[in-house]
Amino acid sequence: MISSEIFNFDNSYSRLPERFFASLPPLPVRDPKLVRLNSGLADQLCIDAKFLGKPEGLAILAGNTIPKGATPIAMAYAGFQFGHWVPQLGDGRAILLGEIIDSGGVRRDFQLKGSGPTPFSRMGDGRAALGPVLREYICSEAMAALGIPTTRSLAAITTGEQVSRERILPGGILTRIARSHVRVGTFQYFAARNDMEALRLLADYVIERHYPELLSTENRYLGLLASVVKQQALLVSSWQLVGFIHGVMNTDNMAISGETIDYGPCAFMDFFDPDIVYSSIDQMGRYCYKNQPHIAQWNLGGFAQTLLPLLSQDMDEAVETATEVINTFETLFQSFYYAGMRRKIGLSLELDGDDNLVEDLIKLMADYNMDFTLTFRYLCGLKNEKSLADSVIYKLCSDQSALDLWLLHWRARLAKENSLDTQRQNTMMQVNPLFIPRNHLVERVVRAAEDDNNMTPFNELVDVLARPYDGQSGYDDFAKTPRPEEIVKETFCGT
Length: 495
Ligand code: AMP
Ligand code: MG
Prior knowledge:
Elements lengths: L20 E3 L9 E5 L1 H6 L4 H5 L1 H7 L11 E3 L3 E3 L2 E3 L7 E8 L5 E7 L14 E2 H16 L6 E13 L3 E11 L5 H9 L3 H15 L9 H23 L1 E2 L21 E2 L23 H20 L3 H30 L9 H14 L4 H9 L10 H4 L5 H15 L6 H9 L9 H14 L3 H10 L30
Helix pairs in contact: 4-15, 4-16, 5-8, 6-8, 7-8, 7-9, 8-9, 10-13, 15-16
The protein binds adenosine monophosphate and magnesium ion (MG).
Adenosine monophosphate binds next to loops.
């Protein structure tokens, strides 16, 4: 224990019954070193970043010291992985130290990932390799900068120990901050055990924590289902709008809060292909880009099932009302998605035919494997009237006449807006990023870190991605599509 109170912990999850978790401290590591500390996030959490950077702070991030007020636990959960039921998963390599109320009054989990074995580790070693830790840091912080709900990364450290994967790799620990770590799989854990008391407690817990506006409503559990459906529709539509492929949308990786969680073999797409799969473990393409909305709805169906006994004493009625709510997913998703796409192509009005215009662009991008990010970004630079500026976007499409045809329709539609070029262009640039964590960039910084213990490229990439919408001098290469020899075809979870 250290004497001063560095964190204002208030640990609500550990006050739930003991069967919700296992209590244990992280397993200390030999020689921790700080790779990066997110001081902006530390400020939001009202944590003294300077302290965290000192040896005493580092000892906490390494799991070598338990700070005062912490109640370290590993959470229990289950889940459907690739459609198959796994009755017990749980935090096998993560420890929740506690919860902090941030400067905005939001309760946030403070979790160490890679902190040693727990009763939920099954065959795993409870550790994380540095590569996946850095990948998660990069992608989660990029996601946050894009304005998409996500868990955050407060710190990445090396442990001074090695982990054994396909080869021997340096170990790392990520400090993950989340609105909570309750997942669809947490509900499924208790539902599978027929533990009605726990289910009700858990449902009440997440309502109070994430959806307190439901507390005064008549059927708060139906409200919970509807709220989670809406948050997921919003989340997955945001992913589709930036070409993000989560890669492992198992129910244990779907957070009730609506945050993106678990950056394993995820990827931001370069050349658009709706069927593309990067994850080495997704051989059937279950979690490919275009399937993400369907999978989200399938997972939500699983969530609904766990809530049935809370919805009504009459099972038929419960099924009927839950089904109605689940069926709203598609409409919600479409409305978020097309609204986002309209913004991306510079439309502020909503007119008949807009969805078709979007679909035609998506088809064009797919037919010619146009770079997802640059297509939209280059579109920002085009004028209301055809001009020489069009030449920039021609570079992305091998069939100029097909592209010209779409641009013709787009301009005819823009004419109905009466927007000025500069005004529309500026608005578009605020929703169409220039910089995303392209796989080859991530791969390059991970190689430098793991192979040469060189963290400079990692730090540089994180800095650039913190301002995804702004041009940054000297970093033009970070916005480019990969050269053929740089293309990363496969990503790994690295567990
Ligand atoms: P993930 O694929 O990261 O969502 O993890 C799925 C399950 O495997 C979770 O229960 C994890 O805690 C567990 N797990 C993943 N990697 C390890 C590891 N190295 N040691 C122990 N458990 C792990
Ligand atoms: Mg997981």
